[in-house]
UniProtKB/TrEMBL annotation:
PANTHER family, A to Z: UNCHARACTERIZED PROTEIN YGJP, UTP PYROPHOSPHATASE
One of the Pfam families matching this protein, by short name: YgjP-like
InterPro entries: UTP_pyrophosphatase-like, YgjP-like_metallopeptidase
Top-rank taxon: Bacteria
Organism: Nitrosomonas communis
Limits of the YgjP-like metallopeptidase domain: 39-247
Protein name, UniProt field: YgjP-like metallopeptidase domain-containing protein
């Protein structure tokens, strides 16, 4: 049964939300339908899924007609956001946290220890907890998990940088973790390589591509044809990795 409710807004901005589904290209797509005082039908896709905003009197047949006309875009955009969820954790118990492309679930054990458990039952203890579950606020959980992430990132990235520096025959550069919103990595003119900590959530192959890319700047500080030849010499499948990263950016 659809969940229908009206918000407590002024009459001039009457708003009705409705949870619905539609089949597009043999895929059942859930979406939130919002009726409001507007003239056009608008589609929006973000981490919450598909939202369709329509005029108050828009018929369901007209709405579905628009959705079918945009089916390819809807399906493609939802797939992209599905990939993006890898790097957008929710800070609470039983949430999923990704490590090298594998999902780990955050649990509190009977001995009051926070653990991350993978699907193949690998575990990684973060920190012992002696307080009640109620004290595990999102901020505290974020602190625990981020400590774990940064520890893993430093270990794996140091290993991969050493590997690819040796392949290139360049001195081991200084490496720092970055929290940049829009860049996976960078290489400064003084030879310092910055790598986004979020790379630790992605498959190792993608981390390797970013490492290979940034270390190649130690030889070619540009994106010329010569630069891409350097990248290809140590990471032949760079085009595929680059395309995969673009789906997550």
């Amino acid at each position: 049964m659809n969940n229908l409710f009206r918000s407590r807004t002024s009459h001039s901005k009457t708003l009705i939300n409705e949870a619905r589904t539609i089949t597009l290209a043999d895929k059942t797509i859930g979406y939130t339908l919002i009726r409001r005082n507007r003239k056009t039908i608008g589609l929006k896709i973000n981490r919450e899924g598909l939202t369709v905003r329509v005029p108050l009197q828009a018929t369901l047949s007209r709405i579905e007609q628009v959705l079918h006309s945009k089916a390819a875009w809807v399906i493609r955009s939802l797939e992209i956001w599905k990939e993006k969820k890898i790097i957008q954790p929710q800070w609470c118990l039983d949430s999923t946290f990704w490590l090298l492309g594998d999902p780990y679930r955050l649990v509190l054990t009977e001995s009051e220890k926070l653990q991350l458990i993978s699907q193949n039952n690998k575990t990684d203890q973060i920190q012992e907890i002696t307080r009640q579950i109620a004290s595990l606020t999102p901020c505290r959980i974020e602190k625990f998990v981020m400590t774990w992430y940064r520890k893993q990132a430093r270990a794996y990235m140091s290993e991969r940088v050493a590997l690819y520096a040796a392949k290139l025959g360049v001195p081991l550069p200084k490496v720092r973790l970055s929290s940049a919103r829009t860049r996976w990595g960078s290489c400064s003119s003084n030879g310092t390589v910055s790598l986004n900590w979020r790379l630790i959530q992605l498959p190792l192959s993608l981390m390797d591509y970013v490492v290979a890319h940034e270390l190649s700047h130690l030889i070619e500080m540009n994106h010329s044809a010569a630069f891409w030849k350097v990248v290809e010499s140590i990471y032949p499948d760079y085009r595929q990795a680059r395309a995969e990263l673009k789906k997550i950016d």
